[in-house]
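# step 3/5: fold
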Amino acid sequence: MSPVLTQTTTIRPITDNDLDTIVDLNQDALEGVGPLDRAKAAELVAMADQALVMEDDGDIAGFVITLPPGVDYDSSRYHWFDGYFDTDDYVYLDRIVVSADHRRKGVASRLYEAIERDKPIGLEVYDHNDGSLAFHTGRGFREVGVLAENGLVNVMMVRLPA
């Protein structure tokens, strides 16, 4: 795989045809995200505010899923932000995953650029994921709390619109 992205990169909505690939990518990245099966992936995409893949030369290089407030999502991390924000005008970044072959090539940055709008974004990062914490801090996210559960410590982070 080349060290840079090709000239044929595209960001587009996730389709049913992408679900098997995004599940595989997700399962290869469990150090930073929770597990996902095809049914759960389809459910997340259906309730998503934004569900995007980035293709590089026909291969899915990464994906991102954000959720609006008020959806029926069984996640304590998602519901934590209901208590944090005093508005319904924000999005929760449920997961962003970049394929192993495309890491450190700007895929995550491009996906973030596609979802960053005039709304606050809430997300969590495992406290042991130093690379992700540094990445998010560099993008303007700040720590606003901690949620410990199931033996994991989640650093709750928010980025406000510029």
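# step 4/5: annotate
The chain is about 30% helix and 30% strand.
# step 5/5: archive (pending)
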